[in-house]
Amino acid sequence: MKEFKLAAWPDLPPVYQRTAYRRMLSDMSQRYITLPRLAERSGLSRHDVRQFIEMLDARGMLAERDSSAPDSIFDSLRPLGGWIRRALTAQT
User: Fold this and answer.
1) CATH classification number, 2-91, choose in 1.25.40, 1.10.10, 1.20.1740, 1.10.3470
2) What is the 3-state secondary structure (H, E, C) of 45-90?
3) pTM of the model
4) pLDDT for 17
């Protein structure tokens, strides 16, 4: 599943100047988030959220990733932490 993050803050056309759309922009400005989660948090239908996402994408204002990607470099290093812990335990 795709996750979306805002790459630039848009000037919204009048049709999107509602609290629900601003809430989605706020969420996407802080983290990658899925379409179903955006719909849940905004209270809008998935169809409305999808249209909004498509508008932002057409303007080049979105970053996308697969939801299986780690949130940060520290998440990707998590297996390394277990290896270091085991190595230190073996030395004592």
Assistant:
1) 1.10.10
2) CHHHHHHHHHHHHHCCCEEEEECCCCCCHHHHCHHHHHHHHHHHHH
3) 0.71
4) 93
Three-class SS state of 2? strand
Cβ burial of 10 (10 Å; 0-12, 13-18, 19+) is middle
pLDDT digit string, tens, across residues 14-65: 999 999 999 999 999 999 999 999 999 999 999 999 999 999 999 999 999 9
Q: Rounded to whole angstroms, how far apart are CA atoms 85 and 49? A: 44
Q: How far is CA 76 from CA 4, 27, 86, 89, in A?
A: 19, 23, 18, 22
Residue with tokens 């057409």: 58
